[in-house]
Specification:
This protein folds into two domains: 331 residues, no CATH class; 129 residues, STAS domain (Transcription Regulator spoIIAA, 2-Layer Sandwich). The chain is 60% helix and 6% strand.
Length: 562
């Protein structure tokens, strides 16, 4: 499908736009804002920033990224996966680290989108992404245990060490906080799905927990004051930043870039399946890039497209990107009208939201499928990526996941299949092809799979013993790709046969493979007369030419070749 410009996307979206469709967008936008409000507050806190930072992020992302996105259904904001990355970053560098890394990642996303490199994100195998998602979910879950229990334990280098620290004890849970957190957890788990579409369970749970705490007046940690402004007091200021430290933030920026791109494009893939509207990946990355470059100047945290919010918008009847903008307006009004109420929300209640969200982040169907069917390669990729995510720096985890992805890719495509068969005259006659079958020294090798450096070993091994083969026909209809190493392997096979007085014939060669053979000079070396449309034609021609091994008269190459 050809790339469509933002102007064309707008034209397609709003062609024939009516008031009835606007009403659908309005309802969907308000529904999404109700879902997004508790998540924005929770993910702001989970990021190591503030609830206000999460709210500002959702508002700015809703306006800017939503307006520039690559599809009408994408709704962006703070997410659980991103918060897991940011909490590590803020512990090391403070809020300044979040802002500068977010700014750099936005610039990188913009460049990737402008260079139209978005398609390469799709090359990461599903087990690696699933493992990374599970690792992120565990980080979020572990990171909220403190708030859920109403305690403050020592920071750790990794989520795994943080989890192990709880088993050592040395703290006393605040059971008031636990009760408030459980109110939210139970509400989200028990609230009927049908009713959830009308009133989000997460929002209801927070209302119930906040109301209960207001009634009994427990002394638990709360969100605190919510500034009624989009320009937070704590925001990125380029004049006060020490630019000499910029290289320190390149690695975190790469992590945020990779995560932002993967999560946004995955969200687009899921939503595309729900709507039938294809995401313009590069335009989406441009929108994500511009939005994330601006968000730090407001005091927000990096944003990505969010599957939960986007799917709610779709299921609520959303038609265009106005859903994202209306949801941002709803959050903005909440900031100005409900700030005093939101300030009294217990942190334990937000922790309850995040615990359930973390559990639901896991791709349980994919995990059950991998392990239930015992796909060993997928299980290994999932497990290693998940463990790397919770034990190492997330930059390292993404690198390890990428290396695993490359290894899986090479392993899968290197499985070239080569079947060598004798000529069966009966099968040929059944096709209406007259073949005498007098020569037993004609072999046909059916090659399936790409012939590149990782597959040449199997290729060479298949033809290590040619015996008294006079004519070897390579049927290459199942070989779509060849590289330089593959060309060299065919060249060596040709020379080997030639020294023995035999002939190499090629049939059903793909155009891109033929291009490589021509560039290498191998077509001229083998001879154009030895290239055929089908292996059947090559067999007839081989018999016509004769055979030196069995004494059949040798003739000049016939005219049946193509």
């Amino acid at each position: 499908m050809p790339r469509r410009s933002l102007k064309r996307l707008y034209q397609d979206e709003f062609r024939g736009y009516t008031f009835a469709r606007f009403q659908q967008d309005l309802l969907a936008g308000l529904t999404v804002s109700a879902v997004a409000l508790p998540l924005a507050l929770a993910f702001g806190v989970a990021s190591g920033a503030t609830a206000a930072a999460g709210l500002v992020t959702a508002i700015i992302a809703g306006f800017i990224i939503g307006g520039l996105s690559g599809a009408p259904y994408q709704i962006s904001g703070p997410t659980g996966a991103m918060s897991a990355v940011l909490i590590v970053l803020v512990q090391k560098y403070g809020l300044q680290g979040i802002w500068i890394a977010g700014l750099l990642s936005g610039a990188l996303l913009l460049v990737i989108g402008l260079l139209r490199l978005g398609r390469f994100i799709a090359f990461i195998p599903a087990p690696v992404i699933t493992g990374f998602t599970t690792g992120i979910a565990l980080i979020i879950f572990i990171g909220q245990i403190d708030n859920f229990l109403g305690v403050k334990t020592a920071a750790s280098e990794s989520a795994l060490f943080k989890l192990l620290g709880y088993f050592k004890g040395g703290f006393t849970p605040d059971w008031h906080a636990v009760v408030l957190g459980l109110v939210v957890v139970l509400t989200m788990l028990l609230w009927p799905k049908k009713l959830n579409a009308r009133f989000p369970a997460s929002l209801l749970g927070i209302i119930l927990a906040t109301g209960l705490n207001a009634l009994v007046k427990w002394d638990v940690a709360q969100i605190g004051a919510i500034p009624q402004t989009l320009l937070l007091a704590d925001r990125f200021n380029p004049l006060t930043f020490d630019w000499s430290t910029l290289p320190e933030f390149i690695a975190p920026a790469l992590t945020i870039t990779a995560l932002g791109a993967i999560e946004s494009l995955l969200c687009g893939a899921v939503a595309s399946n729900m709507t039938g509207i294809r995401l313009q990946a590069n335009q989406e990355l441009v929108g994500q890039g511009i939005g994330n470059m601006l968000i730090p100047f407001f005091g927000g945290v990096p944003a990505t497209a969010a599957i939960a919010r986007s799917s709610v918008g779709i299921k609520s009847g959303g038609q265009t990107r106005l859903v994202s903008i209306i949801h941002a307006v709803g959050l903005l009004l909440s900031m100005f009208l409900l700030a005093p109420v939101m300030a009294r929300v217990p942190l334990a209640a937000l922790a309850g939201v995040l615990l359930v969200t973390a559990w639901r982040m896991n791709e349980w169907d994919a995990i059950r499928f991998m392990f239930g069917k015992r796909f060993k390669t997928a299980m290994l990729a999932f497990t290693i990526t998940m463990l790397a995510t919770i034990t190492l720096d997330l930059t390292q985890a993404i690198l390890i996941g990428s290396l695993i992805a490359a290894g899986i890719f090479l392993s899968q495509i290197a499985n070239i299949d080569i079947t060598v068969q004798d000529v069966d005259p009966a099968k040929l006659r059944a096709k209406g092809i007259e073949a005498e079958g007098k020569c037993a020294h004609v072999k046909v090798a059916f090659v399936t799979g790409p012939l590149f450096f990782a597959a040449t070993g199997n290729f060479n091994e298949a033809f290590a013993s040619l015996g008294d083969t006079h004519a070897l026909i390579l049927s290459l209809r199942g070989m779509p790709v060849i590289d330089v190493a593959g060309v060299e392997a065919i060249h060596r096979l040709h020379e080997k046969l030639h020294r023995r007085g035999g002939t190499l014939m090629l049939a059903g060669v793909h155009e891109n493979v033929m291009t490589m053979l021509r560039r290498s000079g191998l077509v001229d070396e083998i001879g154009a007369a030895n290239f055929f449309w089908s292996s059947d034609q090559a067999i007839v021609e081989a018999e016509h030419r004769g055979c030196g091994f069995c004494g059949l008269p040798l003739t000049a190459p016939g005219s049946d070749q193509i």
